[in-house]
Amino acid sequence: MAKERNLRGLIPGGVDVAVTSTVIVPANNSRRVLIVVNGSDTDMYFAVGQTAVALAGLYVKANGGTLVLDEADFYSTQAVNGVHSGTGTKRATFQEFI
Predict the structure, then answer these.
(1) Mind listing the pLDDT tens digit for each residue in 2-44?
(2) CA torsion, ordered 88, 51, 98, 61, to nearest 10 deg
(3) 3-class secondary structure, 28
(4) For a 10 Å CB count at each end of the chain, is N or C smaller?
(5) How far apart are CA 41 and CA 52, in angstroms?
(6) d(Cα 15, Cα 1) in Å, to the nearest integer?
(7) Is 55 exposed, middle or buried (0-12, 13-18, 19+ CB in 10 A)?
(8) Which residue has the higher pLDDT, 86 or 4?
(9) CA pair distance 3, 51, nearest whole angstrom
């Protein structure tokens, strides 16, 4: 049976991710769950608590690929940074829960 949790969602957001490391979500010591969605047409790479590097780290596919940080699987309150190896900026959206 799944563990019951009473979480409160914070205001969802979005970030234009560049070809250099970009802060997607800053550190938050109250965070219990973070969901980041790659809404762009280009694959992205994420790093937790570190500078993001293209072609390394946590790989999230284009067009809806999702990264979930939660207490059940992988959990961190550190900042999440992202990067892509395409051109221009690409959009990532997120929802954080405390």
Answers:
(1) 566 789 999 999 999 999 999 999 999 999 999 999 999 999 9
(2) 50
(3) coil
(4) N
(5) 18
(6) 35
(7) exposed
(8) 86
(9) 33
